[in-house]
Amino acid sequence: MVTGIGVLVSSLRSLLIRGKMWIGDSRVCSSSWASLLGVLYNRHYEFVLHRVQNGFEICYCMTTFSASDLVTSLFCGRISKEYLYKLCAAGDEMYAVPHLNNVLYLHYQGIRKIENLDDYVNLKCLYLQNNYIIKIENLDCLQHLRLLFLNSNCIDKIENLEGLQQLDKIDLSKNNIKVAENLSCLKSLTSLDLSYNSLTHIDDIAHLSECMSLTLLRLSHNKLADPETVEVIF
Fold first, then answer.
1. For residue 79, which of 128, 44, 42, 39 has the smallest C-alpha distance?
2. In whole angstroms, what is the distance from residue 103 CA to residue 139 CA?
3. Rg of the chain in Å (alpha carbons)
4. What is the set of domains in the chain, with CATH numbers?
5. Phi, psi of 102 (to 5 degrees)
6. What is the pLDDT of residue 232?
7. How far does Cα 167 stand from its chain's mean position?
8. Average pLDDT of the chain?
9. What gap in Å lies between CA 45 and CA 23, rounded to an integer?
10. Confidence class for position 86, pLDDT limits 50, 70, 90
11. Which pLDDT band holds residue 55 (cuts at 50, 70, 90)?
């Protein structure tokens, strides 16, 4: 399962630090990334990760990924075209042939950089939430994209979206965005979520008054205390 694989990557990071990790029935005690490499690299498993915390146990399985694929994602936060191919082949509602996909699930993958999506030209929905992405980039090839989920990342600037003219919804909640900008060019944008960010002043959201197609806007859990904020938008 795609979600299981993504959570596995995130869980391995945290478990490695604690020195609590199992593969199959064998416990792995690792004090460094090198130890993990020695255990996993160039092997193929049906991974079963047992995490014991607060009295419960969670298991995650994956059947088609080599350990080297996992390590690439785990260490570098980079997703290769080969990794994407295997992810799609293994996941529900996705296909090994890139252009057949209209939905791509890349959440919980430990991704730091958006890349290698050039072949997925027919995507309409892209899930990239709960990663470590710091920059919005390399999306111009997705001319048919309508739904973009980038919530729960490390993004501090809205940029590089002008090529996505069919974009209808963007979720950028739970990032570190300080200014709402570069959105008025998206003439089809109706839904925008900027909740849980770092917007503090009226000037930070003034640009939203130029987004004429917006019908749903979320700004909760920022630091916008000025009562004139509503007037600026409406």
1. 128
2. 14
3. 20
4. 2-68 (no CATH), 92-234 (3.80.10.10)
5. -110, -5
6. 57
7. 17
8. 75
9. 9
10. confident
11. very low
